[in-house]
Design goal:
Layout lengths: L1 H20 L8 E6 L4 E7 L4 E7 L7 H18 L6 E3 L6
Parallel strand pairs: 1-4
Antiparallel strand pairs: 1-2, 2-3
């Protein structure tokens, strides 16, 4: 139990440390990634206007997790290009990657 609480504390500290340095705008939005055991969710967020520009999930994509994530990346990239977004900032959140 203590080990789990310690890991959660480390993750929350990492999240705060990363969030302080990253800010997205309409020309260069922040890419937020959420991973669960089953699905992957990606959002392009404009922090100035406080709204989500583009979002996607792997819930409707069939296949293995790696193939799902590749397909999700392609669809998000296509949507971003259609919206005129050429660059973005990755918010790794509490994850180490």
């Amino acid at each position: 139990m203590r080990k789990v609480l310690r890991q959660n504390l480390i993750r929350e500290r990492r999240k705060i440390r990363v969030s302080k340095k990253i800010n997205g705008s309409s020309t260069m939005p922040r890419i937020s990634v959420f991973r669960s055991n089953k699905y992957l969710q990606v959002q392009l967020i404009d922090d100035v206007a406080e709204k989500t520009l583009i979002g996607g999930t792997t819930k409707s994509i069939k296949g293995k997790k790696t193939a799902q994530s590749i397909e999700l990346g392609k669809t998000i990239a296509e949507k971003a290009l259609k919206a005129g977004i050429k660059s973005a900032v990755l918010d790794r959140n509490k994850y180490r990657y």
